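TL;DR need structure tokens for one chain.
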Amino acid sequence: MVVFTLIFVLFGILMWVAAGVLLYFRRRQLRMIDLMGQVETSTAYEVSGLAPGTLVEVKGTLRCESPLKSEMTEQACAYYLSRVIREYRERDYDDDVGSGRRSEVMASNEQFAPFAVEDRWGAVGVRGEGAEVDALEVMNRFEKDPGEGGITLGGVSINLGGGESTLGYRYVESVLRVDEPVYVLGAVQKDGQIGAPAESGREKRFLISYRSEEQLERKYRRNALWLGLIAAGLFLFGAIFLGVGIAAALGALAVEEGRAAAELVVPVRPQRR
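>> reply
TL;DR here they are.
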């Protein structure tokens, strides 16, 4: 009974912790929406006249004099993130159904190139290192386990032999394309470019996205909604698990107290006349 109670209480607490983590990320999504609404759009020409550290947002076309070539799709871009993800089946001995599908990142390569945001009033440079990048996914391909073999990513050779549990490998790549629309929210640097804020904090965010501001707002609101719903569900199930565990503990305690009370009762013998 004690083990049963501990398991239910532990699961309840873990669900509440997970819900708290989801609510934290939900608040980050909502704060980003508020921040985007508070910061007025500046033109490329206006940014050069602002004080260093000022938070600005600019919208325009991404220009890059020395573009990168993404590793998987070989697209001209100012940023790319390439990943190789191993998907495998892990045996779950506590599950009657069988095995669960899992994944792990085998290799990841993220690269930035200096670029500029150009609008009809001019252009302003951007240094993307340290940004939250919302890039366009241009590849998401799954291939079955190739057996013995390898791949080179970021100049590093990776052996893809995963054994019997390996289902295959997923190749994922996201890019910021050259000569396409881009949205940037960041801080003015001393050289007049836009980059990461000097100090981290609630209002210090650095975001680069291929989406428009309106599309970003819809994305963050949708994410916040789902995170809130999942967190509410976890809180509810956590309360149920805690309630069951506590009820079981109280029931066991009442039984023990009843037994103890019964043992203390002394039988009264009738007196003989």
